[in-house]
Amino acid sequence: MSVLLDHLPELWQGLLVTFQLTAASFLGAAVLGVLVTALRVSPVRVLRALGTAYVETFQNLPLLVLLVLAFFGLPEIGVQADLKVTAIAVISVYEAAYIGEALRSGVNSVAKGQGEAARAIGLTFTQSLRHVILPQALRTVVQPIGNIFIALTMNTALAAAVGVVDLTAAANRVNLLEAQPIPIFVGAGAAYALIAACAGFVTGRLERRLVILR
Predict the structure, then answer these.
(1) Which end of the chain is more exposed for a tag (fewer CB within 10 A), N or C?
(2) Cα 61 to the chain's mean position, in Å?
(3) CA distance 77 to 161
C-alpha cells in the first residue's frame, strides 16, 4: 500500500489521462456510431453497404493493430499528431462500430408504424430518424451502450503500448522503479474496476428511468 501512496502523483496523473481518453473517445464513438447507424438503416443500398463494410471491418480487427498502424504508419505518410489525440481518434473509430450496431438493434426494436407515421406527416428519412426513431431507440439500448463504455474504458489501456502515459503506463513505470507488481497493478486494476462499477450503476439507473413500457 505504501508504494501506491509514495507514487500517488504519477498514478493520479495517469488516471486523469485515462479519464480523458475514455471521455473523448466515447464522445467521438457516439457521434460516429450515430452516423454508422444512419448508414446501416438507410433506404439507399450503397449507403447500407458502406455501413455494413465499416462495422464488419472494425469489429474484425484488433484495436492494438489499429493503434500500432496509426502511431507508426501515419508519420510515414506525413501525418503528425499528438499521441493522445491519435489514440482518441483510433479508439473512437473502432468503438463506433459497436455503438452503431447497438443503436441499429434499438432502431429495429421501434415499431414500423412509427417510421410510417413520420413519413405520412412529411418528414424526410433524416428528420424521422432524428426526431422519431433514434430518441426511442436510445431508450432501449442504454445498458448495451453502457457495456460498450466499460469495454472502451478497458481498451484505453492499450494506448500504453504505443506511448500514451495513461494509468496502465504509469503503473508500469512505477513497477520498473519499485519492482512490486502485485500492489501496483492490483491498485491500478481496482481503479479500472471502480470506473466500471460507476458506469454500470449509472446506466442501470438510466435504464430503469428511461424504460419504455409496452
Answers:
(1) C
(2) 15
(3) 21
| Nearest by Cα to 103 from 39, 25, 195 | 39
Task: Locate 147 and state its grid cell.
Answer: 457495456
Residues 6+ apart with CB under 8 A from 2: none
pLDDT tens digit at each of 214 positions of the chain: 677 777 778 888 999 999 999 999 999 999 999 999 988 888 889 998 999 999 999 999 999 999 998 888 877 777 777 888 999 999 999 999 999 999 888 887 776 766 666 677 766 767 777 777 777 778 888 888 999 999 999 999 999 888 888 899 888 888 888 778 888 888 889 999 999 999 988 888 887 876 654 4
Amino acid code (one letter) for 176: L
Cell of 84: 493522445
Within 10 angstroms of residue 186's Cβ, the number of other Cβ atoms is 13
Domain that holds residue 33: 2-210
The answer to whether 150 and 200 have CB atoms below 8 angstroms apart is: yes
| CA–CA gap between residue 123 and residue 133 (Å, rounded) | 12
**Predicted TM-score of the model (pTM):** 0.88
Whether the CB-CB separation of 114 and 172 falls below 8 Å is answered with no
Total structural domains in the chain?
1
Q: How far apart are CA 93 and CA 31, in angstroms?
A: 10
Residue with cell 479508439: 91
The CATH code of the domain that includes 84 is 1.10.3720.10
Cell 436510445, residue located: 138
